[in-house]
Every structure is written in C-alpha cells, then in structure tokens.
Amino acid sequence: MDIYLPIAEIAVNAPLIVALGALVGFISGLFGIGGGFLMTPLLVFFGIPAPVAVSSMALHVAGSSMSSVMAYSRRRAVDWRMGGVLATGGVVGAIAGVEIFRLLRLLGQADLIVALAYLVFLGVIGGLMLWESLGQILRRHRGLPNPPQRARRPIWLYGLPLKVRFPRSRLYISVIPPLALGVFVGVLSAIMGVGGGFILVPAMIYILRMPAGMVVGTSLFQIIITTALTGVLQAGRNQTVDVVLATLLLVGGVIGAQLGARASSRFRAEELRAILALIVLLVGLRMGLGLFLTPEEPFVLMTGMAG
Question: What does residue 220 show for φ and ψ, rounded to 5 degrees?
C-alpha cells in the first residue's frame, strides 16, 4: 500500500513507515531518547530528502516521547522542575537551530552538514558510552568492584550562581549548566532531526549528577517541548515538514514507545547503555560512510533552474 508524500515528493509503503515508527518508538521508550538519530538516517536511506527527514522527525520524536513520559510519570520517575529548565534552554536552541538550518539550505550545504554531524556526534558519543558500559559489564562478570566514584562535585560546575533546588533529583545546583545543555540539544534537534537524548542522558548522569532513575523520564519530558517547537518552526520557516510522513511515523511511534518503556525495567543499566552505544555507532558510521562513497548518480539534472 503506497502513499504519496506531498513535501518529500515521493511514494512510500505506508505499513513499512508505520512499522519503522513503531521500532524507533520502542527504542525511544527503552533508552530514554527521542529516536530521531536512528529514524532520520533510515528515512534518508529510503530516499526521503534529508531536510524533509530532519524536519518531519521532530513531530514523530515529540509524539513518541510524550507516550513514554506518561509511562515514566506513573512511576514518579520524572523531575518536572529539571525538565522545565532543560526545556527552556531547548526552546532557545531550537529557534537558533532552525535559522541555522535555513541558512544551510540556502547555501546548499544542508545534506553535507547533517551527514557530518551524525558522523562526529554519534561516533564520539557512541564510542565513549560503549567503552564505559563494557568496562562495567566485564567488571561485574569478573566479580570486581566498580571504581570509586568521585563524591566531590566539580567546583566550576556547582560553584556557579543562580542556584535552584531540585527536590526530586536531590540536587541544589545552578540553573546555568542545565540551561546551556538545553540550548545545545535544541540546536542539534533542529539541525539533525534528533531529540538529543543520546547526548542528554549521559550528560545528566555524569555532569549534572542526577540519579539514574530520574534521567530517562526527565530527558523525554525535555525532548517533547524542544522537538514539538522545532517541528512547528521548521514547518513555518523552511516548509520542510511532511505532515503525511510525520503522521505515519507517529502512529507507530506512540505504540512502540509504550512497549519500550515497559521493557526497560527488564535490563541492567549498563547493558542498556552498551546496546544503545552499538546502535549509535553503527548509525553514525553508516551515515558518515555516504560522504566517502561514490553516488549512483554523480550528476543530477535540476529542473526549474535559470539557464
């Protein structure tokens, strides 16, 4: 059953797109990420133009994340105050990122920058996560204790002004670091079509020092606000949101996210991080590989261009 996408200007198999949405939604709920880092390359592989894939993914990520947050909120595993601070920064970053994305499209460099961003960010983050999680798994199998964590929090981070209490996360820190983190993730959301969870989750654990049980739900709550705004801005400023594509992805994503959130309690944290790290690395390498391979059609005739 093929359906025509008016903005992407191609026909796709509707059940296949819904199934892809469900798969990525499941991964979203399982790992506490938006899932855009996986879906955007998949859509590009299926022939959807990168700008349309990036922009349309924002609405899918928002819907899948909302479904997951509902499941995590029932466990009281969402720090709403911290999520609000992160989302405030995310709003600022999303506005800036959409304008940067518009400029890149006007310069004809959007596809190149998207591929480079995936190669660099996913390669670095995935490599670090895999190294850390495999180390914990090996130590557990060998019966070795984990290395002692630094109890002392970095002065440069926690000595900043504008401190706020976050009772649910048992933190009393400056709002500047989470705001800055939110801005950075908002920019990535606009340029890469991701929720930013693959950066946000480890940053909340290792930089903000949030309890692991609060990180996933809080990350998803921030992702809802940032990606929803990104989708609206992309539709208004760049006209690259394909509503038909986003709806198909959303139908599958909402169902998959609920199943993923329920399945997350069956795995150890380090095992989840190791699996996520492998997925992140593979997607980043595959997306970046396109920069070095010769395209099937080196020359493309552009219609509507002045002679």
Answer: -65, -35
pLDDT at 221 over 80: yes
Q: Give helix 269-289 / helix 123-142 axis angle, nearest 10°.
A: 150
The rounded distance, in Å, linking the Cα atoms of 237 and 124 is 31
Cα(223)–Cα(228) distance, integer angstroms: 8
> Residue 303: which pLDDT band, with cuts at 50, 70 and 90?
very low
Q: Would the pTM count as exceeding 0.70?
A: no
For residue 167, pLDDT beyond 50: yes
Residue with tokens 């892809």: 20
Q: At what angle do helices 14-31 and 36-45 cross, to 10 degrees?
A: 160
Token pair for residue 251?
Answer: 């139908």
Q: Which residues pair with 171 in a beta bridge?
A: 166
192 in Cβ contact with 93 (< 8 Å): no
